[in-house]
Amino acid sequence: MRSRKPFIIFWPAYFDAKKSRAEGRRISKKFAIERMSTESLLKAAKRLGYNVQLEEGYNYPRTWWDDPGRVLIDIKGKKKSKVMLEIAKEIRKMQTKN
Q: Rounded to the nearest 5°, which phi and psi values hold at 71?
């Protein structure tokens, strides 16, 4: 098994407004995203200056039938929860510009 260090896994389900906390959403509804995708997660993390890798073909364990993939982000020693909020705010900015 290859090492992912210093990367942390981020699933699109963490940000999805359509999901409940039990279904995998990790941020509050206030910051959750309506149309969440792996690509928007990847773009937002890159815009914030994080080192990012996309891994396709992986299924989120709580929704194993869905195939969104996952994003690996080097969070540079920050807390994962803080990075999730930063990314959610950045995705919101990107969506309002469109």
A: -120, 130
Query: Helices 80-97 and 38-47: crossing angle, nearest 10°?
Result: 100
Give residue limits of the domains in the chain.
Answer: 7-97
CB–CB of 25/16 below 8 Å? yes
| Residue range 7-53, pLDDT digits in tens | 999 999 999 999 999 999 999 999 999 988 999 999 999 999 999 99
Pure H helices in 19-79: 38-47
Q: Exposed, middle or buried by CB within 10 Å (0-12, 13-18, 19+), for 12?
A: buried
Closest by CA to 10, choosing from 66, 85, 64, is 85
CATH number of 7-97: 3.30.56.30
Confidence (pLDDT) at 52: 95
In the predicted model, is pLDDT for residue 97 greater than 90?
A: no
